[in-house]
Amino acid sequence: MKSLTLIEKHWLTSSVCLLLIITGLSLWPLDSLPSAPGSDKAHHLIAYAALVFPIALRKPNRWLWFVVFFIGYSGLIELIQPYVNRYGEWQDMLANTAGVVCGVAMATAINAARKRRLKD
User: Fold this and answer.
1) What would the pLDDT profile of 24-50 be if each residue is shown by its tens digit?
2) Disulfide: which of 6, 60, 95, 97 matches 44 by Cβ 3.0-4.6 Å?
3) For residues 66 and 72, what is the distance between their CA atoms, to the nearest angstrom?
4) Within a 10 A sphere around the Cβ of 85, how many other Cβ atoms?
5) Residue 67 CB coordination number (10 Å)
6) Is 103 helix (H, G, I), strand (E, B) or coil?
7) What is the pTM of this model?
8) How far apart are CA 106 and CA 56, in angstroms?
9) Which residues contact 116 (CB under 8 A, 6 or more apart)?
10) Given this model, what pLDDT does residue 1 score?
11) Would you say 85 and 73 are in contact if contact means Cβ atoms under 8 Å apart?
């Protein structure tokens, strides 16, 4: 549980860093996609789940605005990608949105389990 406390303490820093990394990797011009294990869509899902998880775990004021922002931001990235020698795909945005939903679901489940443990 120490790692969860650390995530909650540094939720903003970790989310901003992840957002910058995702932005850089998404908009860096490439001649071809690098070889990586797993599917491209799984990478999108994991990245956005990791992005939203600290915020959903900590739940600062107006945390749902962050969720909406990340989904909108992923759509904006897909619109920009064709201008930087990348391919914008709406399926990527769907995978990003699924990642946001998964990240929120994981954080919600963890918070619920923590509350149950405190009651017992």
Assistant:
1) 999 998 887 778 888 899 999 999 999
2) 95
3) 10
4) 11
5) 18
6) helix
7) 0.91
8) 9
9) none
10) 66
11) no
Q: What is the pLDDT of residue 60?
A: 84
Residues of the chain with pLDDT under 70: 1
Are 95 and 44 in contact by the 8 Å Cβ rule? The answer is yes
Eight-state DSSP code of residue 84: G
Residues 6 or more apart from 114 whose CB is under 8 A from it? Answer: 1, 4
Specify whether the CB–CB gap between 77 and 38 falls below 8 A. Answer: no
CB atoms closer than 10 angstroms to residue 40? 14
Please give the pLDDT value at position 119. Answer: 84
CA max distance for the chain: 56
Encoded tokens for 64 = 């749902």
Token representation of residue 117: 């443990």
Return the residue matching tokens 């939203």. 52
